[in-house]
Amino acid sequence: MDWVTLVSLLLPAAAAAVYKQWIPNTNFETASNWEKGRVPCASNVVHFEKNKVVSVFVGSPHALTDMYLPLNGEFVLASGAGFAAFDGSWDPGCDSGVTVRFTDAEHHAWFNPTLWQAVSPDGELDPSGRIFSVDEERVPCRYDDVIFQPETSFRVNVDSSQQVIHLRSISLMGQELSSPEAWARYLRGPSAPLQFHGNGTLQVTGTGCPDKSGCACGNAPDGHRICAALLGASGRQCPAPACQSPLQPLGHCCGVCGATINLDFTPDFDLQKYRDRLVQGLLSQPKYASVQMAISKVHKAQTFLGVIPRSSTPLIQIVLIDDGAGAQTGSTAEQLAADIMEDVAQHGETLGISSGKMEAATGSAFSKQVGSHALNRIIAGTVLGLLFSLLLLGGILFLYRKGKLRLPTLRLPQPWDRAEEMASPDPASDKGFDNPMFGVEPPSDDCGEKTLQEMAPKDHQVFYLNPLYDASETET
Fold first, then answer.
1. How far apart are CA 152 and CA 108, in angstroms?
2. Most exposed: 179, 192, 363, 435, by fewest CB within 10 Å?
3. Which of 106, 129, 109, 59 is nearest to 292 (CA)?
4. Average per-residue pLDDT in the chain?
5. What is the pLDDT of residue 388?
6. CA 31 to CA 210: how far, in whole Å?
7. Are 72 and 50 in contact (CB under 8 A)?
8. 3-state class (DSSP) for residue 149
9. pLDDT tens, 373-385?
10. Who contacts 444 (Cβ-Cβ below 8 Å, separation ≥6)?
């Protein structure tokens, strides 16, 4: 397949640096931050819960009748912003004496994918809807840049299964903190404890991914938190897929219809260049206008004999989905996956790709699964089974040779043994006889004679039959 470099609007999605922007804020002027869904007016009473910790940005001046403040919190005032007492003038759009309460921001969690969005370096929303991320990568990864919008306040729960959450940089209040020293100074200030809470610790490293083949996101330990937050927002249940056997990409909470490709790579592989190649050469084609793609490095768990956890192997995962419906669900994504596999077969060695496996799940009843290594698992299982059997036999032989194991002796009948049995004479034709006197201890002379005399009558004779005597022969 010949490739032509195309100028595409998808290129920003393939940029090396990834920027994730936090969506919620705790600004005074944000209507959703108030229980009544509107900003307090002059004749209202403003109420902050006294035991809630809060940081509030105030962007403009406000006149209020009364205000109850928290015991621990801060108000960040923009230029010209502030509060003034209400002068009592009539305001037709304001309910006099009504209490308006500030909502609780404690539930906003760092590992909630719905609270983050991908943006460009200047904070503008990413214009591309063609590139998406699996759920674990929708939350900032260890080499990502995090942006909190300028002139906004926020409060984030950073509870985590990781002791430290690593990031490349953090931008807040219009200031970028991209070194460990700068971040440490900010943490010692008064605002950080009001903005970040929970058992996790954010750490700015200032370094990007050092590997040209890409770096894994690093959010797998908190995958359960991500899925719980995501499914909690949608009713705690994955939507019913339109295909019979949905695929389960690594790092994604729910099954998908479409196609996945797992690529094994060599040290020559460059993830950035390969992503650009797919975006410019395939994804931008009109026939694939309905397809979305996710591509990243992931770690797949390896097991011994399919049961015992052994280690994890890095691979490049490509996830393709489309907007097809009914029997056409996933079919366009499957076709794109087949084109990618064809390109791998032709140019894989040049691209640093050693092998690839494709799986597809579509709305068609004849959905197929194709892969250059579709039988790898069966072959590997067979080889491991043979090796295990040889090791078992070798162990038994070793113990037997050492005398630590005794094996029962089995004698198999041989053909000549059967011949000997057939040739042996019938026991009934044996001319021998049993000697009744053999093996009988003779009685002593004294006791024996006396006993016989006492037991037998005088006219009784004791005699034995001679089995060799034949009376007929004597008569003859």
1. 15
2. 435
3. 129
4. 83
5. 77
6. 43
7. no
8. coil
9. 444 444 455 667 7
10. none
Question: Distance (Å, rounded) from C-alpha 260 to C-alpha 337?
Answer: 7
What is the token pair recorded at 370? 């194709």
Give me the mean pLDDT over the 199-216 stretch. 96
| Cβ-based neighbour number of residue 208 at 10 Å | 15
| pLDDT value at 400 more than 80 | no
Angle (nearest 5°) at CA 377 between 362 and 274: 60
Element (H, E) at 120: none
* Nearest alpha-carbon partner for 4 in 280, 208, 353: 280
Please report, for residues 6, 244, 264, 315, the alpha-carbon distance to residue 357 in angstroms, rounded to integers and kept in the order given: 27, 20, 9, 11
Span 258-272, pLDDT tens digits: 999 999 999 999 999
The alpha carbon of residue 113 and the mean position of all alpha carbons in its chain are separated, in whole angstroms, by: 17
H-assigned helices in 160-306: 180-187, 192-195, 223-233, 271-278
Q: Measure Cα distances from 355 to 333, 345, 358, 376, 424 in Å.
A: 20, 8, 10, 11, 71
Predicted confidence band at 166 (pLDDT cuts at 50, 70, 90)?
A: very high
Q: What is the largest CA-CA distance in the chain?
A: 165
Q: What are phi and psi of 334, to 5 degrees?
A: -65, -40
In angstroms, the CA 5 to CA 198 distance is 47
Burial of 30 (0-12, 13-18, 19+ CB in 10 A): middle
H-helix or E-strand spanning residue 17? none
Specify the pTM: 0.73
